[in-house]
Specification:
alpha+beta; 6-stranded antiparallel beta sheet; 12 helices
Amino acid sequence: MATKEKVLGSWKTWKWRNHLDQPAGQEGPTEGFGRVIPLHAVVFGMAVECQEIRRHHRVCFNEIGGLQMNDTITWYSPVSSELCNGDAAEPYTTERMRRVPGGYSPLTDHFQAMTIDFNSPQDLEELTNRKPCRLCLPVVKEGVLDAIVAWFVLQLDDETSLSTGPDEETCWEQAVYPVQGALGQIVKYGDTLVVDVSCKNSYLVFHSIAVLRHENKTTIEMNTLSDQPSSHLACETELCNALANLQTTSDSGMTLHCMLESSEIARLNNTQYNDCFKSALNSVLSSLTPVDSGTCFSQRVDDMNCENTDLHNSSDPTFDTLYLLDVSEGFSILPLIAAKLAPIKVFSSLEKAQQQATLSILAESNNISKDLLEFWHNYLDDDSTLLQRPQSGKLWSVIILDAIETCGLIRQGLVEKAVLARCLLRPEGRLLPQCITIYGILIESDTLQQESAVQGKEPTLGFNIAPFINQFKVPIHVFLHLSTLPHVQLSEPVELLKLNLLDLVTDDLCSEIRVQVHSSGSLTAVPFWYEIHLDMDISLSTWSESSHWRQAAFVLDNPIQVNRGDELLLKVRYHKSNISITVNHV
């Protein structure tokens, strides 16, 4: 049964049982009137190992792109179990666990975390003031503790219920409480997880996770979902003593806490992304650095680090400073990767003071002179000629653009930024990336079709709401995990369009592609992704296991029946950073 039909069908069953749809004026049973529906909700949860969740909420590597990640920096995502300040933060994120790339492994059995009685005013009033409930959860499988996953079972009446659980084919996602901070450890069969559950500011919160080791119950390792110790801890003597010792451990004050968006953490963990940029930057900087100037690489580094060296106004004709500007969206370590490779003055586009401080600490711990790193936004109110249209000797040597959004779309204004960047480059300067190739594939996917628009009257129990609701649908479906999306592939991948950022002057491009159908079916959508060419030899795909990008798809208004051997004509248009596709039989 379709997801929406199953949900609405359950509500219809409840209505029939409670006589809410009886004819007007007809007397009938009053049982069920005056009740809040659902009657109550039961919150269930389980601890899981999930690499996809881990790489979005914890920095997983000690070395990234040739840089050592400083141990004094604590990375964390905005998801926090601490008291939420208005709408600024939530203690959880959401995922459709059935479709998480790489899947997940339960480390505990399903457990009941809380019951909420919607028909008890007293219960609802006391909910947010209720003391945390302590749960002791036996570990049933060895693995890395990455998150607590939670869902609800909504009881409509004594016989009808709806579940939002990960095992259900449901329209709901599950709540995910990622474990952050220093824990990230392997738990073993026989260990016990101690978890506090409470309701803060109307948010369900899991916090104060402690691990009681099977080998020695007095050995306790503890961490919270937000990397902050809880004040509500054990009643058991051993647990109380152990956690008391942990909480009295003094903070040296040397730790820097840096909050990054989950997409920024995933980019740090994308080893292919950072290694490819390292290789491309090494190639670019090697070609830009003169080998016959009489000044060796090491000598130039020493000169640039010298206190008396004026990098902006050097009169030494043999001293040709290279300048790199990174305008990546969000936190980026690419400037430091470049500065580690060659004596180059790097400018980061980071605006947040906390992130600027973090990048500076990373530079220092990797022996990169503080004089080589600057922050571009700090000069926006300055009269510095370097950041306005520079003189010929002060043009940028390398400019790094962020071409693709995490959701799978091309960033707005990419072509305009590329045109401007080319004007600010030295004659021999380089733009990264150089080219973007868009690839697509023909698929049949009932799931994608149902999630993109209301399909007829049947899913909504005969109500004809599709004509109205579908007026607000968009043709592009974003944030797709194409590797886990239920679908049937109808063709081989094809090149849809190419954006050459080195000479492109317009953001209005068209192409026509003939595509051979290799499997019969109903053509529902054309998913697309990108090959990002950093140079002629090095490229990145936004559809790979390690990618921090997701994919997007152009969903057809009306599916097209196709047979094996058919040839289709795809007309692709790129206009104002948006992609549109029309499909017709040849």
